[in-house]
Design brief:
Blueprint lengths: L7 H11 L2 H5 L9 H29 L2 E3 L2 E3 L4 H10 L18 H14 L1 H20 L2 H13 L2 E6 L15 E5 L2 E12 L8 E9 L10 E7 L1 E3 L5 E4 L2 E6 L10 E6 L5 E5 L6 H37 L1 E4 L8 E3 L4 H33 L3 H37 L10 H8 L9 H14 L4 H11 L2 H6 L3 H30 L2 H5 L1 H30 L4 H17 L3 H17 L7
Parallel strand pairs: 3-6
Antiparallel strand pairs: 1-2, 4-5, 5-11, 5-12, 6-7, 7-12, 8-9, 10-11, 13-14
Helix pairs in contact: 1-9, 1-17, 3-5, 5-6, 5-8, 5-9, 6-7, 6-8, 8-9, 8-10, 8-11, 9-10, 9-17, 9-18, 10-11, 10-12, 10-17, 12-17, 13-15, 15-17, 15-18, 15-19, 17-18, 17-19
Amino acid sequence: MSDYRAPVEEMEFVMNEVADLPGVAALPGCEEATPDLVRAVLEEAGKLAGEVLAPLNDQGDRQGARIADGVVQMPDGWAEAYRTFVEAGWNSLGFDPEYGGQGLPWLLASAIQEMWNSSNLAFGLAPLLTQGTVHALQLHGSKTQKDTYLPNLVSGHWTGTMNLTEPQAGSDLSAVRTRAERDGERYRITGQKIYITYGEHELTENIIHLVLARLPDAPPGVKGISLFIVPKYLVNADGSLGERNDLRCVSLEHKLGIHASPTAVMAYGDQHGAIGYLVGEENRGLEYMFSMMNLARHSVGLQGVGIAEMAYQKARDFAAQRVQGRAIGTAADERVTINHHPDVRRMLMSMRARTEAIRALNYYTASAFDKAQRTGDEGERRRQQALLDLLIPVAKGWATELGVEIASLGIQVHGGMGFIEETGAAQILRDSRITPIYEGTTGIQAGDLVGRKILRDGGAVLEEFINHMRSLDNELGAADDASLQRIRSALLEGIDAVAQARDWLLASAREDPRLPAAASVPMLHLVGTVTGGWLMARAALAARRRLDDGEGDAAFYRAKIVTAEFFACHEMPHAQGYLRAIRDGSEATLALVAEQL
């Protein structure tokens, strides 16, 4: 089983040349993100990921989280690893210094998250949920709530969760039944929540649950949902911990993967009602939770990147060691490692190119987040926020779908050994399969992209983004490089496909509102593929400039151009297929009545 090695040089390149780290570092509060500091942070995080977290990944999968008498036991080594993680300050990297954070850009924090997800996806889920809790409270919590909860959440001494899903509701949050009864200045919460990641554990002394619940006089549907802080242990006025709250973990789910991550069924208020504290105003809970979910969705997109990188590394290393067959086209009788065989090379290049594309998209999205949060220009802030809103469902949905495909292809590279658990390739696929499901399935992300981000504004933001992608044409056209010209041709065809699909969506919505919904997932894949191709083209241009200037590692930059060309030749042609599925296939999707399916 191969070890994880953080691709620091690749991450640095993408942050600088594709995601505009220099521009992010010039934003207020980001001045410390110098090249030297960024490199040092990446290297130190890579050591923790490779030396501490990755060795626990297989053991965590085999041992899993267990429950006995309501107490959740984590796999061996988990508590020590989490303590090391917190004491080194990794949880606080991108948070507000006012509450103990380091204030570094989300772009850098995103690259670090990728490392946690590559090395140990189950471990990385704990800080992922905590950061969402921090973000929600920073935006919507009262000053008292921030002072009470944020310092320990930011440091990682406490963890956070989000409690949305219920057995009867699933993704339909309008059906939430958990109840909240007013009790003076606080509330009593009763109900059950399912699929609560890290809902119970002993890694930290407290767990802060954010819970959606409904007041007795609340309006029906999503407009009647409120958001509450429900701590595992109540917090006294002096910050010390008080009595155990009326909540418990009923059971842990038995899952396909991420076995070491405890996915809890949580019961609130079995005795007198769990004490909760209202966040913001009554009946605005879903609005508040979405601010947390959007950040979480981007973080899950980074899980897709992390799992893809780990699958690629494992397949690449196996192919470099596995001796089988003779090299085609040579007279030599010597057997060779399988990375000499053309189809294995095709699979490895596909894994490599797709991973680089989804990394570029997620880092670019993180850059938009930083700019939307920190820029002092209101017009630029709105523009970056609109771009961020457009990209979030694509970064989550497309990256996780490709993460699963890349993990599956990794098994194929291993051949029969990939189907054997001891190689670790099977665990990567099992772990990856949840990522297109939680924080909103791919269908939900696609519906958000088409319904809220394209149709609602008449495609205006997407049109602006299309024009921005087209602006790369002049630079590509001026390059005296055959590879860049092939990349340019594929990119322009892909951008045209996005524009045509946008026009079809706007027209079809006026005829039958079901048609855009039927086309939404192909549209998500189309936008993801073309955006990925555009970002790969930017990377190839930057690599060409570095080669022309005689800077850095020439082999690395040549590989960047080759990988971008592979993506242009093998992935970008799918854009025309997605366009045909959108324009010509949506009616066929709806043609049969439900009883015929």
